Amino acid sequence: MSLEDKLNQVKGSVKEGLGKVTGDTKTEAEGVAEKVASKAKEVAEDAKEAVEGAINGVKNILHKDDK
To answer: Disordered: where is this region (predicted)?
Structure first.
């Protein structure tokens, strides 16, 4: 999870809220889209890190068997 993704989620939430308060449905929808896109990117990065960790774990097990 990166700080940039978190900041983009907050930015999207603020934009969404501003759109709601002002009645600007376009701004509100843009805020929702930014928030969702940033969350999806964060989840994808977390999944990638988990897969890389699993691969490294398997590599370590295999290297122990080589010794």
So the answer is: 1-32
Amino acid at 20: K
Contacting residues for 29 by C-beta, under 8 A, at least 6 apart: 19
DSSP one-letter string for 8-62: HHHHHHHHHHHHHHHT-HHHHHHHHHHHHHHHHHHHHHHHHHHHHHHHHHHHHHH
Summarised one tens digit per residue, pLDDT across range 27-60 is: 999 999 999 999 999 999 999 999 999 999 998 8
CA distance 45 to 60: 22
Domain ranges of the chain: 3-63
